[in-house]
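Consider the subject:
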Amino acid sequence: MSQAALQIVPKTASQTKRRPIRFRGRSFMALVLAPEPPADEWLAELDQLTARSPGFFGGRPVVLDLSAMRPTPRAMAALLAELEARKVRVIGVEGVAPTHFEGAHAHLAMPIGGRAAGDLSAPEAPARKATSLVIDQPVRSGQTISFPDGDVTICGSVASGAEVVAAGSIHVYGALRGRAIAGSAGDAKARIFCRKLDAELLAIDGVYMTTDELDPALKGKPALARLDGETLRVAALD
C-alpha cells in the first residue's frame, strides 16, 4: 500500500483576509489632587481623609496638579513615592515643566487609560450634548455613576460603598448612604440634594465632608449641601 504525501501549502497574501486596522476612543473620569505646600502637612491632611473614609480612592485614577507646589524633579519624585505608598494611583501629572518627565516619570506626562467610548468615525455635525443624567434605579454598593457634563438624578437610593460623581448638581430621591461628589469640573455653584442623608462623604468642587463631620441631627433627614466660600454647608430641607 502506498501512502500519499501530505503537503501543506501556505496561503498567499491574496488568500488571507485580514481585518482592517481599527481605532477606538477612550475617556475616563479621574480625581484631581492639587497638593499645596508644605508637602508634609498636605500629606498629613490626606492621611486624615483616608482614615475617615478608607475606600475614598479605591484604586480610581488620579491626576496630580502640582502648579501650586512648583516642585523640583527630585521633590516630585519624593511626592509620587509617598502617594504610591498610600496606594494612590497617579496616572498623570500637570503643572510642572516638561523636564520633570524624563526617565522613570516619562509616562506621567499625559493621562492614559480610561473607559471605552466606542469606535471613532469621521467627524459629523456636532450633536447636542446631554446636560443631565437620570438613573431610574438604585445605585448598588461598589457601583460608580460618573457624568462629566452636568447634573445627575438618582430615582432611588445610593448604597453604602457606592459613588455618584457629577460635573453639576446631584439629586437623590432616596437615601444617600454612599459618596456624592458634585461640581467635579470646578462648579462651585453645584448642590447635593437627598431625601434621606446618611452619606459616607459629600464633596463639592473639591471641598469635602465625611460622615463623622455631619451634624447628627441631620442624619436620616432630607438635606441640601452647598458651598459657602471654602466651607461645605449642609442644612435640612423643609
User: Anything to note?
Assistant: The chain has two domains: 25-116, 132-236. The longest strand covers residues 170-176.
